[in-house]
């Protein structure tokens, strides 16, 4: 089946892992912002550890 290479959209050319990773990062930042602004929850004490956990949680 021939591939249509006329003008791929950015979303069509992005890998699913990149899209899911970006969505997870946006979701985590949104949860932090809502927790901080609405519920007055403190920010994590070890933000680098949380970032590493977020980036490696989907690896097999």
Report the radius of gyration as a whole number of Å: 17 Å
Structural class: mainly alpha
Unreliable stretches covering 5 or more consecutive residues: none
- Report the span from N to C terminus: 32 Å
Mean pLDDT: 77
Helical content band: 55-70%
Described by strand count, sense and barrel closure, the largest sheet is: none
H/E series: HHH
* Individual helix count: 3
Overall shape: elongated
Q: How many E-type strands?
A: 0
DSSP strand (E) fraction? under 5%
Q: Can you walk through the features of this model?
A:
The mean pLDDT is about 75. The protein is elongated and about 50 Å long. It has helices at about 10-15, 15-40, 45-55. The chain contains 3 helices and no strands. The longest helix is centred in the middle third of the chain and has 24 residues, at about 15-40. It is mostly helical.
């Amino acid at each position: 089946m021939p591939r249509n290479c006329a003008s791929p959209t950015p979303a069509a050319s992005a890998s699913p892992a990149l899209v899911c990773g970006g969505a997870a990062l946006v979701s985590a930042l949104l949860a932090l912002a809502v927790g901080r602004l609405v519920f007055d929850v403190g920010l994590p004490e070890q933000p680098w550890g949380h970032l590493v956990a977020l980036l490696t949680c989907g690896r097999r």
